Amino acid sequence: MVHANEAVRIGLLLGAGAELVVIAVLWPFGVRVWEICIGEDKRLSTSKTIPFVWTLVVGIMLLALVWAYIKGHHRPLNETDASGVVGQYALLFGGPLGAAILAKQIVTGQTRENPGVKPEATKAKLTDLVSDDKGQPELGDLQYVLFNAVALVFVLATILDTPLKGMPHLPDVLLGLTSVSAVGYVSKKALTPTGLETAAITPSKGAAGTEVTVGLKGLQPAAQEGGRFWVYFGEGEGVLRVAPVIEGATEVKAPVPAQPPATASLAVTVVTADGNTMSGGNFTYT
Questions:
Q1: CATH number of the domain residue 263 falls in
Q2: Domain limit, last residue, from 130, 161, 191
């Protein structure tokens, strides 16, 4: 029995080593396995990282059980087959994978409608897992990461403590929380605003040629730097000027058309170089 325990524990080390070898072998061919976790916006993706880590951990455990089986210790693998944990791990995979697929569909739809909603980051950071695109802590992301992290710790600690039982059976509370947090994570994605906001223009009334200021909200630093904005008065008439925005800028200034149109009040629209449209309120000629 002692030898069987040792066989599984040694198998865990071999499984981890085998995965590292695969990663190292693929490196010279330009395959960076961990880049699976990087989203299109160059941030560390929560929805991709969670199933990626579960894949590695479950792969290590399976390799350990197979190693023990090859060494003549059949009980750990047989216990896994008889315990019914396959359904649990299918849910652990299915939940995060489903969340990743839905999150990608939601974000893709948002960026198709509004290209500026997901500006690229300069580099991926570990804090991306629990933060929004502005770098602020996000409760939904934190719950999703935390509950899965606790489940991962439980699984690894249990198989190290009792290797003969094979892949651990997860308590219902852990399985439930990981599933609920996945649903909450996807729901939060769906409720994320898809457009940038603008503050009301200042002033909102004046004569032709008046310079107005349109405050910008929701811009990411990466989008601000070198950004180009067009200001429209009315339905696309009177394109005023290209207003380059430097890093840290929070407003766009532009003169009202010198030739007043037939209507006394015009809708003000700010359009970015990537096609994102922001409403800036209305300007009334006096």
A1: 2.60.40.10
A2: 191
Higher pLDDT, 251 or 149: 149
Check the CA dihedral 37-43-45-49 and report its sign.
Answer: positive
Q: Cis link prior to 203 (omega < 30° from 0)? A: yes
Q: Are residues 115 and 35 in the same domain?
A: yes
Q: Which one has a higher pLDDT value, 267 or 159?
A: 159
79 conformational bin, left if phi > 0, alpha if psi -120 to 50, beta if neither: alpha
Does residue 134 sit in the same domain as residue 91?
Answer: yes
Per-residue pLDDT tens digits for 26-77: 888 888 888 888 877 778 888 888 889 998 999 999 999 999 999 999 999 9
| Residue the block writes with tokens 């502005």 | 134
Of residues 35 and 136, the one with the higher pLDDT is 35
Q: Which token pair is 197?
A: 């906001």
Strands 277-285 and 205-206: parallel
Q: What angle do CA 281, 284, 286 make, to 5 degrees?
A: 160
Q: Would you give the end-to-end CA distance of the chain in angstroms?
A: 92
| 262 plus 225 within the same structural domain | yes
pLDDT of 113-128, one tens digit each? 554 455 556 678 888 8
Could you tell me the residue range of the domain that residue 178 belongs to?
2-191
User: What's the pTM value of the predicted model, to 2 decimals?
Assistant: 0.64
Number of domains in the chain: 2
Residue 222, SS3 per DSSP = helix
